[in-house]
Write a structure and sequence with these properties.
By secondary structure, the chain is mostly beta strands. It has one helix at 44-52, and strands at 8-19, 25-40, 59-64, 74-77, 80-88, 96-103. Strand 4 (74-77) and strand 5 (80-88) form a beta hairpin. The radius of gyration is 15 Å and the shape is elongated.
């Protein structure tokens, strides 16, 4: 992984539940960390893997390795929101995470 490719400031967001004024519970996302990352459209081989996992993948976002990123979280870049479908730690080297995501907004 070339550090020069990690040029985008990406927010890692976790779901949080809050009680509204009416007493109901609403789920929102709050930022856990802001990291440098790379956003790409997956190539053909990555799309085949995504099809096997039956996930709709629109982007692959690469960040440095972290132990706290979960598949039910989301990533935010500017006004764009990416729902994480699955995460890969290439070769189990703990150097980077490849988050295969679907852009939802």
């Amino acid at each position: 992984m070339s550090i020069g490719n990690l040029r985008k400031r990406i927010q890692i967001q976790a779901p949080t539940k809050a009680r509204t004024e009416t007493g109901s519970i609403s789920e929102t996302f709050s930022t856990v960390a802001t990291v440098w990352g790379e956003i790409k459209v997956p190539n053909g081989k990555e799309r085949v893997v995504a099809d096997q996992l039956q996930a709709e993948i629109s982007h692959k976002i690469t960040i440095r390795y972290r132990t706290d990123v979960k598949e039910w979280w989301q990533l935010k870049y500017g006004g764009r929101i990416f729902q994480i479908k699955y995460i890969i730690n290439p070769k189990e080297w703990n150097r980077k995470l490849q988050c295969f995501c679907k852009e939802i907004r």
